[in-house]
Amino acid sequence: MAITQRDLAGRSGVSLATVKNIERGTGNPSYSTLDKLFCVLGLELDGRLKENPML
How confident is the prediction for the chain on average, in pLDDT? Predict the structure, then answer.
């Protein structure tokens, strides 16, 4: 599915600036924000945390 950043922002209710920052890797989105974006994209956000071997 091809979707523009503007479309994703509009459909999810997340600001365009936030979508751009997430895509650039400079954003720090909340779980709620990610859930909204994933919902538009037809994805499911899994709330489980992976074990990090570096910690």
Answer: 90
